[in-house]
Design a protein that fits this description.
Chain A is of the alpha+beta class and 575 residues long. Chain A has 3 domains: 223 residues, no CATH class; 60 residues, no CATH class; 223 residues, PPM-type phosphatase domain (Phosphatase 2c, domain 1), CATH 3.60.40. Helices cover 47% and strands 19% of the residues of chain A. Chain A is built from 13 helices and 16 strands. The longest helix of chain A has 58 residues. Chain B is α/β, with parallel strands linked by helices. Chain B has one domain: 2-Layer Sandwich (Transcription Regulator spoIIAA), CATH 3.30.750. Helices cover 38% and strands 33% of the residues of chain B. Chain B is built from 3 helices and 5 strands, in the order E-E-H-E-H-E-H-E. In chain B, strands 1-2-3-4-5 form a 5-stranded mixed beta sheet. In chain B, helix 1 runs parallel beside helix 2. Classes of the chains: A alpha+beta (575), B alpha/beta (102). At the A-B interface, loops of A face helix 2 of B.
Chain lengths: 575, 102
């Protein structure tokens, strides 16, 4: 029945596993979700920062420096350059053209001032610079650039990238003319996304607001999205690692806790149960297998332990009870055996040795003691008394009544009175103090042996079977008187009969016709007669044996339901 | 054994029996009768569905008859079949209880 002797360790393992899996899944899910949300908000924030940077820079350029003048100066020089000269943008030679300009060249010039002031805003973005627009050349001409490593110089120009123009058109964000600001995203070579914000700086002295050339310069702010995301990713990664470590720690902590609070107590209880069984087998008397565990967790486990403790006590009580009952039962069994001996002893054994008759009788109780009896005795030298009786019920109550009624009837008959009077007197005594309404059916006869004449009484008993010499058995049918023991003043009648040589009387109790088999069928009077008539001339002992066999055979394995009693008397006149 | 039905109507108790009244069911019947016999003078017992009657059941009948007789009433038996009539005949019960013919 035991598959293994080791204590199972599954709850703790399962808990750890499931907690880890659960937390990891939860962690990953929240990570990804958080990452995505973070990314999105980061991008939005970056766009805003970029716009604001450009906007503030534009205000600075507008109010805090002479941008108009600078733009005018630079564009003036620029326009006068030949295309060939312009193509050398970025070189020292090219820049010389513009250094001469006070506004653009000198350290205190407008360009320098702007560059200095704009640098305040440049930390949050990747690039921040101020340009003028060369509409015909579709180019932007630098006026100031906050880049510190490799800045553009005033006059340096670059063609407006086609991607910008495309993106602007795609997003319908407006254009370089007019007062609108431009903010758009670019995918630069598929590697990075640039967020570009463009804010115009206007010549306020030009009152024509619809004049496209009112905007004399543009602040351009560039922000690399990747760089922003990269920062964010770093942050999230750090957080994730910390969370993962925490998760694993928590998982193990939970596993340990589960083991301690659930798995271990359960195993302890299981072991206690096993010990209980072992101890019982080995006869060790302990009653505290479960209470000794001292489990006081205040939860279902304590409840379980308490319940097991109760159950253990209950079982022990039950065992003691059973032991007492078994001892009692054995004692009663011994008493019943003795009672059976007494009852057997009370029934007559030796048949009076007379040539006038042969006689056989048998009584088989359904339980250890029964309520049937038979009796035969010489009343005087010429008269034989025969009795057969059946007390209602079975077992001890019937047996007690049986002993009394047998004694009363015998005494009355022995005192010499006629059978009816004997029954009436016996009945009176039986009826007194019979609160249980136990009754007894009785058939008796007194036979005058010299003549074969007899007197019979029937107090509610089965019809006797009679065989005249040379014939078969038949039931004698006549009206019976009532049973004995209940009706104090019952009256009984005597029937006269005469037996001839070879006549045979067979009397029995209802245990014979009412014997049943497994199919609840009854043996019946018909089968009784058939059995008797198989060999009607047989001796009484033989007849009784045959009926007994027939009943046993008929009943099969079914238990004997009622006491079975038979008495058979054959008259042989004077030979 | 099927359930015995008891119907009380003033001082009259009607008992409808069923099945085999062997020793065990007779003792059950006895207990139930005792519960229902308060203030009852007349008992009517319906034997239509009774298959078999043991001596223990006869005892219960007798006890009921005696009890109700002391109260000035008695026991009446209804729908008694042939087999059971034979038994009553045999034990001389017909002098004691009243069997109502069908």
């Amino acid at each position: 029945m035991k598959r293994r002797n080791t204590t199972p360790k599954f709850i703790a393992r399962k808990t750890v596993l499931f907690t880890v899996i659960g937390c990891v899944v939860l962690g990953l899910a929240s990570l990804l979700v958080g990452l995505q949300m973070h990314r999105d908000s980061l991008l939005e924030a970056s766009m805003r920062v970029n716009r604001m940077t450009a906007a503030r820079a534009a205000v600075v350029a507008q109010k805090a420096a002479d941008t108009v003048g600078l733009a005018g100066d630079v564009m003036g020089v620029y326009r006068n350059l030949t295309p060939e000269q312009r193509s050398r943008t970025g070189t020292e030679e090219y820049r010389q053209h513009f250094r001469a300009l006070e506004s653009a060249g000198s350290p205190g010039g407008t360009s320098a001032v702007l560059t200095y002031k704009l640098r305040n805003y440049a930390q949050d973005v990747s690039a921040l610079y101020l340009c003028a627009l060369d509409r015909e050349g579709n180019a932007l001409v630098c006026l100031a650039d906050t880049d510190e490593e490799n800045p553009m110089y005033p006059g340096d120009w670059f063609e407006i990238p086609a991607e910008w123009t495309e993106q602007i058109a795609k997003e319908k964000k407006g254009d370089w003319s007019g007062g609108s600001t431009l903010v758009f995203y670019l995918d630069v070579q598929g590697e990075d996304r640039m967020c570009i914000a463009v804010f115009p700086v206007a010549d306020e002295s030009n009152e024509d607001e619809d004049d496209p050339s009112r905007n004399i310069a543009f602040v351009i702010s560039e922000l690399s999205v990747n760089s922003v995301l990269e920062e964010g990713n770093q942050y999230v990664l750090k957080v994730s690692i910390v969370m993962l470590i925490l998760t694993v720690l928590i998982a193990f902590a939970m596993g340990v806790r589960m083991k301690r609070t659930v798995a271990d107590p359960v195993n302890t209880i299981a072991n206690a149960a096993r010990n209980y069984v072992q101890d019982r087998k080995n006869g060790v008397a302990r009653s505290d297998h479960f209470s000794a565990l001292g489990i006081r967790t205040g939860d279902e486990l304590e409840h379980l332990t308490d319940t097991m403790t109760e159950m253990e006590r209950d079982l022990i009580e039950h065992e003691e009870h059973i032991t007492r009952i078994t001892a009692e039962k054995e004692r009663m069994g011994a008493e019943l055996d003795l009672a059976r001996q007494i009852q057997e002893g009370a029934l007559p054994n030796a048949v009076p040795d007379r040539p006038e008759f042969s006689l056989s009788a048998t009584m088989t109780p359904a339980r250890q003691v029964g309520g049937d009896f038979y009796d035969y005795f010489m009343i005087d030298g010429d008269h034989l008394g025969l009795v057969i009786a059946d007390v209602s019920g079975k077992g001890i109550p019937a047996a007690l009544f049986m002993m009394v009624s047998k004694a009363l009837i015998r005494n009355q008959l022995l005192s010499g009175c006629d059978p009816a009077a004997a029954l009436e007197r016996a009945n009176l005594q039986l009826s007194e103090g019979n609160a249980s309404f136990t009754f007894v059916t009785v058939w008796l006869a007194v036979v005058e042996l010299s003549t074969g004449k007899g007197l019979a009484c029937n107090a509610g008993h089965e019809n006797p079977a009679l065989r005249r010499a040379g014939e078969g058995f038949n039931l004698l049918q006549y009206k019976h008187d009532t049973v004995m023991g209940v009706m104090k003043n019952a009256k009984y009648r005597t029937h006269e009969f005469e037996l001839c040589h070879g006549d045979c009387l067979f009397v029995y109790t209802d245990g014979v016709p009412e014997a049943n088999n497994a199919a609840k069928e009854m043996f019946g009077e018909k089968r009784l007669l058939e059995t008797l008539n198989e060999n009607p001339g047989a001796e009484p002992e033989e007849l009784i044996r045959k009926v007994r066999e027939a009943v046993d055979c008929f009943a099969g394995g079914a238990p004997q339901f009622d006491d079975i009693t038979m008495l058979c008397f054959e008259y042989k006149r004077g030979l | 054994m099927a359930e015995t039905i008891f119907e009380k109507n003033g001082t009259r108790l009607t008992v409808i029996l069923e099945g085999r009244l062997d020793t065990l069911s007779a003792s059950v019947l006895e207990k139930k009768m005792q519960q229902h016999l308060d203030g009852i003078r007349e008992v009517i017992m319906d034997f239509e569905k009774v298959e078999y009657l043991s001596s223990s059941a006869l005892r219960v009948l007798l006890a009921t008859e005696q009890l109700t007789k002391t109260r000035g009433g008695g026991v009446k038996l209804l729908h008694v079949n042939e087999r059971i009539m034979e038994i009553f005949n045999l034990v001389g019960f017909l002098d004691v209880v009243e069997v109502v013919p069908d």
